[in-house]
């Protein structure tokens, strides 16, 4: 097609000519949101899960709070486990993007005729702007994600996140820069909501990696999953399987049987996601993929999350035992008839997708009957385990405790939508004592030392009510 080019780059040449073809057909009429925006897995924007926010970032729907109408209930405590907001790519992905952009530049300089023309087209549509020092840091939109979330929660729980309560909110964060920036932005949002004087860098959160980055401290998890080459076998198999092969063929070259670099296909897909989540841009790279391609790439990242962070290995969920116990201890205290004046109206815990997924798994959520594997892509379309819906940027797991006539009740919201506890599916907000009974085995066990270090320990770490 383009004689004289090395085989490896000719693939990309073909790829980019396809970009431009698809661009010229559709870019002018294209909506602002790429057609594949819902398939970016953990790189999905929060707005893809809650599109009403595209019209109004402060839109809240109070009907998501559903204690029984027959009992007079008032919310008495909120615990929120929140993922950081939109961020820059990490170094590894920035390097992939660099390789992709260098290929583009080299071709633009060396190409001739038609090739030179389309390369100029892509270059006028897109410019490399990522640098390695951006490494995973929170972007401006990521700060907005958390500020806006804080303000929506203040609207949804006016009595808990009230003006006088703001100073009594407990805040903890992972030590990672993007999380600390996120918990600061959350505090900014609360202050803005109540028009309190800007505190001038006076934030009141605690950094707590034991709680928010438990996964790297759990030896059983690190050795059994993270460093275990066979733990992610399904992901490796799928990466080299027929569905991914077809995407590479379609996206990079219809009929070239030569080199089809996997990571560059993914780099182009991620580029589309980053330009959207960081700059709200519809990048020309998005046109490389149709919806079927995007679903395959989404499945690949869901497989990874499932086998690395979720139900694929029981130890992933168990590694979150410290966080599980922390949440229930907080709820226990908040639910006591005579609450101590020192108890917190709200507890805000900011971490990672790697923090939320194990906890959700431990709670038994998003566990489909058939695990996703390399071989069953075709039967997994209806799966509940879709990381883009569960842990997009600014994902949040809310535990809402109510005081009701028959006693305390607990409701779960994920990304501001009601979700029922497994085993208690008849009610949105079951009695707290029924929730405790459901998780009795974990409340009485789920010991970090025993599960993660294999050390036997004494009983009864958490028997208070
Ligand atoms: C609020 O949510 C309920 C379901 O929880 C839905 O029926 C209703 O249409 C929503 N209202 C708005 C204004 O989005
Ligand atoms: C590694 O993972 C495989 C597959 O999940 C498992 O069978 C094996 O026990 C693990 N190895 C270690 C050392 O934990």
Automatic annotation (TrEMBL):
Coiled coil location: none
* Cystines in this chain: 73-404, 272-286
Q: Name one Pfam family in it.
A: His_Phos_2
Keyword Ubl conjugation present in the record's keywords: the answer is no
Q: Name one GO cellular component term.
A: plasma membrane
User: MF terms per GO, please?
Assistant: acid phosphatase activity; bisphosphoglycerate 3-phosphatase activity; inositol phosphate phosphatase activity
Question: Signal peptide location in the record?
Answer: 1-25
Tagged with keyword Heme: no
Q: Which Gene3D superfamilies match?
A: Phosphoglycerate mutase-like (3.40.50.1240)
- Cellular localization per UniProt: Cell membrane
Catalytic reaction list: (2R)-2,3-bisphosphoglycerate + H2O = (2R)-2-phosphoglycerate + phosphate; 1D-myo-inositol hexakisphosphate + H2O = 1D-myo-inositol 1,2,3,5,6-pentakisphosphate + phosphate; 1D-myo-inositol 1,2,3,5,6-pentakisphosphate + H2O = 1D-myo-inositol 1,2,3,6-tetrakisphosphate + phosphate; 1D-myo-inositol 1,2,5,6-tetrakisphosphate + H2O = 1D-myo-inositol 1,2,6-trisphosphate + phosphate
| InterPro entries (UniProt xref) | His_Pase_clade-2, His_PPase_superfam, Histidine_acid_Pase_euk
> What does the record give as EC number?
3.1.3.62, 3.1.3.80
Keywords, sorted A to Z: Cell membrane, Disulfide bond, Glycoprotein, Hydrolase, Membrane, Signal
**What family does this chain come from, according to its entry?**
Belongs to the histidine acid phosphatase family. MINPP1 subfamily.
From the Swiss-Prot or TrEMBL record, give the protein name.
Multiple inositol polyphosphate phosphatase 1
Q: Which organism is it from?
A: Sander lucioperca
Upper lineage is: Eukaryota, Metazoa, Chordata, Craniata, Vertebrata
């Amino acid at each position: 097609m383009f004689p004289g080019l090395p085989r490896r780059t000719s693939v990309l040449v073909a790829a980019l000519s396809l970009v431009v073809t698809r661009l010229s057909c559709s870019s002018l009429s294209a909506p602002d949101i790429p057609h594949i925006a819902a398939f970016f897995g953990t790189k999905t924007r929060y707005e893809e899960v809650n599109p009403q926010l595209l019209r109004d970032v402060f839109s809240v729907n109070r009907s998501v709070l559903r204690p029984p109408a027959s009992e007079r209930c008032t919310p008495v405590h909120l615990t929120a486990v929140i993922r950081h907001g939109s961020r820059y790519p990490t170094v590894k992905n920035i390097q992939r993007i660099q390789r992709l952009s260098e290929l583009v530049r080299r071709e633009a300089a060396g190409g001739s005729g038609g090739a030179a023309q389309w390369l100029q087209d892509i270059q006028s549509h897109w410019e490399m702007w990522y640098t390695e020092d951006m490494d995973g840091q929170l972007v401006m939109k990521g700060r907005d994600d958390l500020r806006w979330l804080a303000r929506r929660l203040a609207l949804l729980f006016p009595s808990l996140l009230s003006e006088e309560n703001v100073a009594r909110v407990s805040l903890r964060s992972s030590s990672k820069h993007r999380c600390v920036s996120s918990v600061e932005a959350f505090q900014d949002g609360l202050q803005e909501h109540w028009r309190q004087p800007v505190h001038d860098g006076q934030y009141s959160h605690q950094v707590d990696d034991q709680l928010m980055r438990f996964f790297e401290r759990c030896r059983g998890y690190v050795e059994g999953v993270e460093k275990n080459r066979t733990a992610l076998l399904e992901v490796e198999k799928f990466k080299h399987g027929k569905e991914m092969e077809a995407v590479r063929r379609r996206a990079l070259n219809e009929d070239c049987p030569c080199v089809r670099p996997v990571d560059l296909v993914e780099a182009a897909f991620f580029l589309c996601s980053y330009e959207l989540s960081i700059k709200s841009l519809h990048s020309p790279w998005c046109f490389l993929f149709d919806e079927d391609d995007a679903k395959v790439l989404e499945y690949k990242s869901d497989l990874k999350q499932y086998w690395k962070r979720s139900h694929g290995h029981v130890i992933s969920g168990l590694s979150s035992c410290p966080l599980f116990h922390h949440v229930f201890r907080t709820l226990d205290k908040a639910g006591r008839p005579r609450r101590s004046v020192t108890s917190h109206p709200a507890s805000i815990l900011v971490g990672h997708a790697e923090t939320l997924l194990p906890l959700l798994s431990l709670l038994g959520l998003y566990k489909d009957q058939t695990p996703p594997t390399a071989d069953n892509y075709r039967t997994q379309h209806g799966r509940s385990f879709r990381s883009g819906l569960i842990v997009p940027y600014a994902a949040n797991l809310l535990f809402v405790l109510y005081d009701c006539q028959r006693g305390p009740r607990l409701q779960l919201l994920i990304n501001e939508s009601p979700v029922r506890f497994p085993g208690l599916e008849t009610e949105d907000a079951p009695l707290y004592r029924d929730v405790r009974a459901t998780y009795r085995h974990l409340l009485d066990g789920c010991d970090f030392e025993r599960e993660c270090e294999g050390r036997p320990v004494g009983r009864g770490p958490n028997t208070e009510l």
